[in-house]
Amino acid sequence: MAAQSSKPQKKAEETLSTAGYPRIERLIETEDFDPVNKSFAATYGELEKVARQKAGLGRAKQAKKAMKSYELVMNLLKELLKLKYQMAEAVKQQEAQKK
């Protein structure tokens, strides 16, 4: 009976350790941005075309909002990567001080 109760606990711990955004965490850890960059570039290009069009029930305005969202996401990813490097550097400095 004790073995059964530890399985849900273990699963809950795994969920908490990556609570939130496991795909983003994996992206930052691996730094494999090529697929994301290609996808974002293609979509952003399409949004630019739509934003330049004058007709279309406010589609240009919606496209501009979507473009702004893509820019914010890319800035966020850059900031997360920057924080990763800062944290790694802090760990190195702490280890050097211990020696």
Would you mind describing this structure in some detail?
The protein is mostly helical. It has one domain. The protein is 85% helix and 0% strand. The protein has four helices and no strands. α3 (34-52) packs antiparallel against α4. It starts with a helix and ends with a helix.
Task: Write a concise keyword list for the protein shown above.
99 residues; elongated; mainly alpha; 4 helices; 0% strand
Topology (SSEs and partners):
Layout: H1 2-17, H2 22-30, H3 34-52, H4 59-98
Helix pairs in contact: 3-4
Average pLDDT score: 84
Regions with pLDDT < 50 over 5+ consecutive residues?
none
The main pleated sheet reads as: none
Estimated structural class: mainly alpha
Question: Percent range for helical residues?
Answer: over 70%
What's the short version?
The chain has 99 residues and is mostly helical.
